[in-house]
Amino acid sequence: MAVVYTLLVLFLAVFVAGFILLVMGAINFDFSNSEIPPGVNQPVKLRIIHIILISRAVVGKILENIGICSQVSFVRYMQGRKTLGVDPKLFIKDLWFEKVPVRIYQPKVPSARRRRGVMFFHGGGWVFGSLDTHEKLCRFIARESESVVVSVGYRLAPEHKYPAAYEDCLNATIHFMKNIEHYGVDPANVIVCGDSAGGNLAAAVSQTLAGRSDLPKLRAQILIYPGLQALDFNLPSYQQNRGVPLLFRERAAFYLLQYLNGDASNLEEVLEGSHIPIDIKLNYRKWVSPDNIPEKFKVRGYKPHVLLDCTNEVYETVKRFCEPNLCPLLAEDAIIHQLPESFILTCEYDVLRDDGLLYKKRLEDNGVRVTWYHLEDGFHGIINTFNSDWLSFSSGKRGLDNIV
């Protein structure tokens, strides 16, 4: 019996040691491919958050390899396991709009007039994120702006591919606008809002509703470091911030492919730009081009990228990247000029920075009023850190205050 016990202890010790080595090896590999620029305030905090995210992903991969659960399921579980208690200032209720789960935040303080309504679409690369991951953020917006906030739990990729997330967000928004009297909201004061992938969804929903005559016009759209195109992953911000946490250039393309068709086999072609035919890229160059990025955003190191052609086989798998419901930056001017007043937040150290800058220009060129707020020391995902105890960043709170 003693021999069996000793062998079991040795086995567990070896397993734990191997597990730790695997995690540390993955962290070291990710570190060698990452860079925290000197312009980021509190770089140690960002590094710690990065380590936590890498460790979570590695543990998930190990669990997947030994058949316990998928990596995606594990990461989603870890993201959403914190639950908040009752909020003394808000009524919070989970409902279904059609077949879409939503969470509604309504201020308890009485209002002399009908409130503003905010449809909120969470970020997470269309693969991660939930009603729970953005709970603090939605509570803060509802409390501080005294608005009714509706957070939408849209379907996630790769289980549910494009256009599932877009359709859920659109259908939830239409349902809210058609039943708005139940929530004490002014139909002329409804806003769509989202961060990252949620910003993409907010932009797409806003474009779709711009042409609807049977619904009230949206009052505004709030796009927080949105991803808005998949034609060019070699714009200045993609080159400059390719290894800056919390979103690497490669991961940005990977998530888009997961949302598109759940298949990342064409990742290299997407990154090098050989996934879209040259004639199509030239057609959209008036909107998606480094020439439309102000020169001050190119000084950190940018090399013009040579246009590459693609095979028909590759293009067939990704041709829906040219649809505005997936890549809102490619919408025609006839749609863009109908869009409501817009707020766009960008971060200097974010691969998606230039998507926001390009959309800002498109909106302004079409006569849409834009409020632009740029976090000079910000990185992708910083808004979600506004209330993360000792891992919070003052820039994230500053950006959120401007949104409110």
Automatic annotation (TrEMBL):
Catalytic site positions: S196, D350, H380
Alpha/beta hydrolase fold-3 domain span: 118-264, 314-383
GO CC aspect terms: membrane
Matches recorded under Gene3D superfamilies: alpha/beta hydrolase
Keywords tagged on the record: Hydrolase
GO function terms (MF aspect): carboxylic ester hydrolase activity
Sequence similarity: Belongs to the 'GDXG' lipolytic enzyme family.
Protein name, entry field: ADCL4 protein
Naturally occurring in which organism (per UniProt): Pelecanoides urinatrix
